[in-house]
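Data availability (excerpt). The following record was deposited with the supplementary files.
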Amino acid sequence: MKAAIEICSIVGPVTGIRSEVSLSIGELLRCVSSENFFGEPVHFEIRSVLGEGHYTAMALEDSSGLRRGDVLESTGSSLRAAVGDALLGRMTDLYGNAMDGKGPITAAGCPIYQRAPSFSELSFRYEPLRTGIMAIDIMCPCLKGGKTGIVGGAGVGKTLLMTSVMTNLLDQLHDSVLVFAGVGERSAETLKIYHELSSQARDRFSMLISTMGDHPGKRARSLWSAITLAASFRDKGQHVIFAVDSIYRHIAAEAEIFGFAGQMPGPGGMQPTVYSELGRLHSYIESDFRGDITTLEAVYVPADDLSDQSMVTTFPFLDTAIVLDRDKAAKQQFPAIDFLKSSSAALKPEIVGERHCRLVCKIREIFQLTRDLETYISLWGSHELPEREKNMVDAAQKVSAYLSGRSHPASVSLEQSLADLSEILGI
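Predicted structure:
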């Protein structure tokens, strides 16, 4: 007698399912007849309905060791993320299993696919949020309840800058909680962030991790579990700092699954649905009338190419884009922010003030002039420049030095920084 639900094909993480009972997209199944080669139970999420009792599913764990005819059973719902205060101060996987060696966690479960806040429920408060890092607060300020991307290639300091921003925000916003989603994270970076947050934030943070060695299905769904946890804190009226490292690895995991399914890729090798997928994902982490979610996203840039398809689809969802520069990082000029490529929706007179906006425009003007004159200066030296250009290049160097390394929230007030920069520029 045939099983009600069984495997009929396996191609990497993509699995063909034959079922005598009706299944729905997003429903979670588990294999009950065998485990994979690593002794782990394997879960599957239904991705598409093919008709006549056939479905396509995505394995959340490595499916090595499974075979055609293995029996599955339905859990009766989608993947359920662990939520609640029991996760504060802990590091877990997407199922809510402890990864920090502190014992099991008992927490309520919440389906990862729920209704996103409707347009009428959204909050449209535009309030600048101080990160405590002067280069950011002046040149590309963040919005409370907004989405900030820290953009750059490998090794330019994205994770380091994100960690500094997270800890500074936790110091300033005493009623906030932090949810950190490590998507395809390196184990060494994970432990470093965990120990830093444990020493500073203690029971005001939760980390949900999938590692680089995890199956693409697990990497793709770990972010959804973290979003569900962050949204649960928001719905209780708390201010949530939601950090993602890195959104690119989520996109890459989805593209990997898309390729195994034998579907044609879109421009740049990404799946054609990547824009709608990111839109759906970001719609769940909007601030609404119950609470705010301030999002920090580390965005990896392949080969430092900002025109990469993953970048093109990510930028529209960001209120602030902090672009890091490899040349500055090589010279140990941290934070290595490229002020000409970075942008912020908060740089408007009605949000940060007219004086602040005028000052940023002037700083960008002298930085652009300095960049345009780089070749000339390298050949002939700055002493050969006309007096006006020489003064502007000198001012650019002083401003760059002033903005570098100022990362302590109490080191100097924002108003004093604006006054100091005005004096340097003579405006």
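Summary of structural features: The chain has three domains: 5-74, 80-348, 353-425.
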